[in-house]
Structures are given as C-alpha cells and as structure tokens.
Amino acid sequence: MNALANRRFLKMNGLGNQITVLDLRGTKHVVSEAEARAIASEPRARFDQLMVLHDAVTPGTDAFVRIYNTDGSEAGACGNGTRCVAWAMVADPQMGDAAKTRLALQTKAGLLPAVREGETLFTVDMGVPRLAWDQIPLAEPFEDTSRFELQIGPIDSPVLHTPCAVNMGNPHAVFFVEDPYAYNLEQIGPLLENHPIFPDRANIELAAVKAPDHIVLRVWERGAGITQACGSGACAALVAAVRRELSARKATVSLPGGDLAIEWRESDAHVLMTGPVEFEWEGWIDPALIERAA
Ligand SMILES: N[C@@H](CCC[C@H](N)C(=O)O)C(=O)O
C-alpha cells in the first residue's frame, strides 16, 4: 500500500498562502510530481505549497522538509510554509511537542531555524541571501551585479524592467514599481516566470517602497501562480530594496494576505521573517487519488 493512502494532513495558511503539511516521518516514501499534483487537485488538501516532513538527516535538526508547488515542482525554500510546519511540530496534538519553542528544519536549500514567538506567531531565519546567478553570499560588501536588463512589453500593464535577482534558497526577480496593483499579474506572471533569462524559472515580485520601513508587495509564484503572500518573496523584496538603497534593513512588507516583519540582520547578513500562521482543518488522503496518480 502506498504510504500516502489515508495519511493525515493539516490544511493551514500563512497570511493566506495556502499550505498543506504532510508528515511522512518513519516512511521512505518520496512524494512524486504526479502525487503532489493529485493532492493539489483535491479541494480539502489544495495548496500553493505542500510541506512534506521526512526523518531528520542531520544530527541536531528536527526534520527534513520537501516543498512542492501546485504544479508538482519542488522548491528549496518556503517562508510561510516553514512557519506552518513549525506550528505543527509544536502545537498539533498528534505531531507536536509542546515543550519545544525552537526548531531546526532542513530543506534542499539548507537549514531554516524557527522560533515560536507567540501562540501562532513564528520567526524563521531564512539564511543569507545570494546573488541569483553566481551564488555569492552577501555577507560581505558586494558589487551589485544582480541588475540585468529585462523588458517585457505591455499587454495591458505598464512596462517592467531591470529586476533585482535575489536567491533566498529559491529564485526571485524583484521589480520596483509605483503601484504593484496597476499590473495585470495574472497575464504577465507566467511570461516572466518562464522568461528564458531565468534558467530555473523564477518567482516574480512587484514591489513598491512606500517608506524606508514599508514595502507593498504582490507575488507571482513559480509553480503556483498568484498567492496571497510569499515569505521568501517578502525577504527577497527587502534585500533588493536595501541593495538599491531604497529601504532600511528592517521593514514591514504588506502582501494581499497581510503583513510580514522582515529584517536583513547587519551582523551576519541573515534574513529574519516574522509572521502568523492559521490552522484550518485536518484531512486524510484519499487512496483513490493516489492510485490515479500512479
Ligand atoms: N510561498 C513560499 C515560496 C514558495 C516557493 C516558490 N513557489 C518556488 O518555487 O520557489 C514562501 O512563503 O516563501
């Protein structure tokens, strides 16, 4: 029998970013692209990201987490999803250990330590951002080679150009604009995500710096489309704004689903993301769904 059949899942969200948490610890099963897509098609399990827990592979860590987008592709990082996993691992009656306030979660992109700040409030250390193309850590002063020319003609949106490329464990292209809501993101999102300039596709951010400590952001997510919030996108937007000397190192990032507090810490160049999570319901994976995906 497939390990996914009748497996319990938690439906959650982080500021409206739809997250499903699935605990596969104790099994060797790795969710396939087709299985992820099948789970995403089930209304009660529907997700922007599926966060799958596996047994820890590194001593001192609490779990290894695989992250899937709606289209079945895998991502290296997911800020909102990591907060949801952290909540599940401390507060869920079946999965959680209420004694814990700190967790070390490992993903394909590295370690994401999370700290419980309140009942449903978590801070995740999203690590050191890297230049998208050559993977140089940004802990030291750098030459900003992340600017590149990209001009996408208007469909019925103002022209976008010169994004800032930031890798937060996943690739982001941040475009600074006057008003992110003036763009038809549904139309331009897929064109930009799949633009040949992005070798691994990209998450697309439209950001407006309203004040040195306030950024308004909309995101088209790679493999998922428009979402209500994107944690790594909010981090990328702040890093890009600091690099362009548009904002302070600490700011509130306002997304359609709500606000995240983001800090690009000066001492070690780590990016910290603080925000809430919401538990919605639990469910069990229909074996027929998984059979159809096989
Ligand atoms: N929603 C996430 C980011 C999800 C990953 C992304 N779609 C990708 O493929 O890189 C977040 O909160 O960070």
Automatic annotation (TrEMBL):
SUPFAM superfamilies: Diaminopimelate epimerase-like (SSF54506)
Single GO MF descriptor: diaminopimelate epimerase activity
Pathway(s) where this gene product acts: Amino-acid biosynthesis; L-lysine biosynthesis via DAP pathway; DL-2,6-diaminopimelate from LL-2,6-diaminopimelate: step 1/1
Active site (record annotation): 78 (proton donor), 78, 230 (proton acceptor)
Keyword entries, A-Z: Amino-acid biosynthesis, Cytoplasm, Isomerase, Lysine biosynthesis
Binding site residues for substrate: 17, 49, 69, 79-80, 170, 203, 221-222, 231-232
BP GO annotations: lysine biosynthetic process via diaminopimelate
Compartment(s) where it occurs, according to its Swiss-Prot or TrEMBL record: Cytoplasm
Catalytic activity of the protein: (2S,6S)-2,6-diaminopimelate = meso-2,6-diaminopimelate
Positions bearing the site annotation: Could be important to modulate the pK values of the two catalytic cysteine residues: 172, 221
Coiled-coil boundaries: none
UniProt-listed Enzyme Commission number(s): 5.1.1.7
PROSITE patterns: DAP_EPIMERASE (PS01326)
Subunit structure: Homodimer.
HAMAP family: DAP_epimerase
Protein name stated in the entry: Diaminopimelate epimerase
Organism of provenance: Bosea thiooxidans
Gene that encodes the chain: dapF
